[in-house]
Amino acid sequence: MAEVVWAAPGRVNLIGEHTDYNDGYVLPFALDRHTVVRANRLDRPTWTVTSQGMAETVTFDLTTPVTGWAAYVAGVVWALREAGHEVPGARLEISSDVPTGAGLSSSAALESAVLGALVDLGGLNVPTADRPALAQRAENHYVGVPCGIMDQSASILSRAGHALLLDCRTLETEHIPFDSELLVIDTRAPHQHADNEYALRRQTCESAAATLGLKALRDVADLDAALAALDDDVVRRRVRHVVTENRRVLDTVAALRRHDLSTVGTLMTASHASLRDDYEVTVPELDTAVEAALAAGALGARMTGGGFGGCVIALLSEDTDPTRVADRVKAAFADRGFTEPAFIPAAASAGAHRLS
Questions:
Q1: Parallel, antiparallel, or unpaired: how do β-strands 181-186 and 342-346 relate?
Q2: Buried b vs exposed e over 144-177: b needs ≥16 C-beta within 10 Å?
């Protein structure tokens, strides 16, 4: 095969934030924004990468260390080879309408599209169910970002019109019907110390689990007893968020099954409050967007993604005018002197797929 074109979406996480690396539950869905990779086969083990909006062309071989944006591509090549696959050399042309730095997993979309293209181009035997772990391995061990498996799973496994319930311990998935209207609010708040703070939150959770004699915070059965066994207030708050957020994911699934959007909205708003007060990963722009969306009639609103900037999602009823919500948020941002936000109507889309 000489050429293939693959697309992979960004994702929105409906609920379940910072639970993935604690072996918990998450409920993302694929966004109708995609990274597209056009891959042409080369007859040598060399990869040349160009990307829309990037001036540089990056070429690497099996001995070349790669940094920067192209490391996500090189990481996929590395992960496939580590898994024993003969990866074809290729020229890769990348374009994307997934916003970068907005917490919508543009990196997972890139990894997933590159992975699909290289697997297809080389006729490699990599079942779809195994691909999220390969893409995560590329990001964890090559790029050096200690992310969980949620983003790659959402980008690869999602189904149109559904949210993806993922058990991050067993990797079992279930597609939950979800066709409600969401408004994604890109606050355009610059990410501040996001990588270091993310790593610190993860380390704190792992240390707390070890103190409690547990494999992960997913295993906390009695929250009150766990909190009483911890002597640091910050650690207690981090644990409380993870445990209650896992419960909110399962409660949201139950509410979706009975078409109870009011309860879904309440759970989303409670999630944001927990992320703000217990996990401390929000910033003023995120909090302002949530407050304004709720004041405009949204059923619920919360930050989505790792935090410290990025996006808010607002759940709208059939009677809620998205323009009214957007105008209320824009006015609140103007009052606070924030950069004007952007808005993306969101519907649950399909995961990574071949275009040609």
A1: antiparallel
A2: ebebbbbbbbbbbbbbeebbbbbebeeeebebbe
Residue 135, both tokens: 């893409």
288/286 Cα distance (integer angstroms): 5
pLDDT tens digits, 159-181: 999 999 999 999 999 999 998 98
At 172, phi and psi to the nearest 5?
Answer: -70, 140
String of b and e for 205-220 (b: at least 16 CB within 10 Å)? beebbeebebebbbbb
153 and 292 belong to one structural domain? no
Residue 32: which CATH number?
Answer: 3.30.230.10
Task: Give the per-residue pLDDT at 193.
Answer: 58
In total, how many domains does the chain have?
Answer: 2
Boundary residue ending a domain (111, 144, 179) = 179
In a domain, 354, yes or no: no
Active site residue 278: no
Q: What is the pLDDT of residues 93-107, one digit of tens each?
A: 999 999 887 778 899
Q: How many whole angstroms separate alpha carbon 157 and alpha carbon 178?
A: 15
Catalytic annotation, pick one of 32, 43, 97, 151? 151
Domain that holds residue 307: 182-346
Among residues 141, 163, 179, the one where a domain terminates is: 179
Residue 70 lies in a domain: yes
